[in-house]
Amino acid sequence: MAKMHSRKHGRSGSEKPASKNPPPWLDVSAEECVELILKLAKEGMQPEDIGRILRDKHGIPSVRSLCGKTVTQVLAQEKALGEYPSDLLNLIRKAIGMRGHLKTNNRDISNKSKLIHVESKIKRLVKYYRGKKLPKDWKYEPEKAELLVK
Q1: What is the count of structural domains for the chain?
Q2: How far apart are CA 35 and CA 41, in angstroms?
Q3: 134 and 115 within one domain
Q4: CB neighbourhood size of 45 (10 A)
Q5: What pLDDT sits at residue 2?
Q6: Does 49 fall in a domain?
Q7: How far is the C-alpha of 133 from the C-alpha of 3, rounded, in Å?
Q8: Per-residue pLDDT tens over the stretch 89-130
Q9: How many whole angstroms from its chain centre is CA 80?
């Protein structure tokens, strides 16, 4: 979504490991990896943070190659996944923060336009998730969104 609201080409991301099999030097089993995922989820971490910690601190390059499932799939199977998708909640938190800023700084024109951009991203994500991870009649309303995030 980088190109849509800024005239930039986006960021290059990291590349996935070339092999679909776990590396031979990895000394963590699939069961231990699932236990680590559940432990980090109980601490309140989101799936993207869990994957980052597993990569950086535990040396697990890819949960999918080790367990055969992604972090989100493991959490969903163990009934530890949140009610709403984490990317949607992060955007809602960002919009709430921007609205709070605009209450005290109502002349901040650039923040007003960026708030419009963030809310349009939220609406696009809601349209994508509606019927899959969100109820069919779910709608983004900024006043109710603060209650959702708290």
Answers
A1: 2
A2: 10
A3: yes
A4: 17
A5: 54
A6: yes
A7: 26
A8: 999 999 999 999 999 999 999 999 999 999 999 999 999 999
A9: 15
Residue with tokens 């069961």: 31
Q: What is the pLDDT of residues 72-85, one digit of tens each?
A: 999 999 999 888 99
Collapsing DSSP states into helix, strand and coil, what is residue 115?
Answer: helix
> Looking at the domain assignment, is residue 144 inside a domain?
yes
CA neighbor of 119 nearest in space, from 107, 109, 129, 111: 111
CA 148 → CA 66, 117, 130, 140, 141, distances in Å?
34, 20, 16, 10, 10
Determine contact, residues 114/98, Cβ cutoff 8 Å. Answer: yes
> What pairs with residue 130 in β-bridges?
134
Query: 6-35 pLDDT, tens per residue?
Result: 777 776 677 777 788 888 999 999 999 999
Q: Is 134 helix (H, G, I), strand (E, B) or coil?
A: strand
64-82: burial string, b at 16+ Cβ within 10 Å, e else: bbbbebebbebbeeeeebe
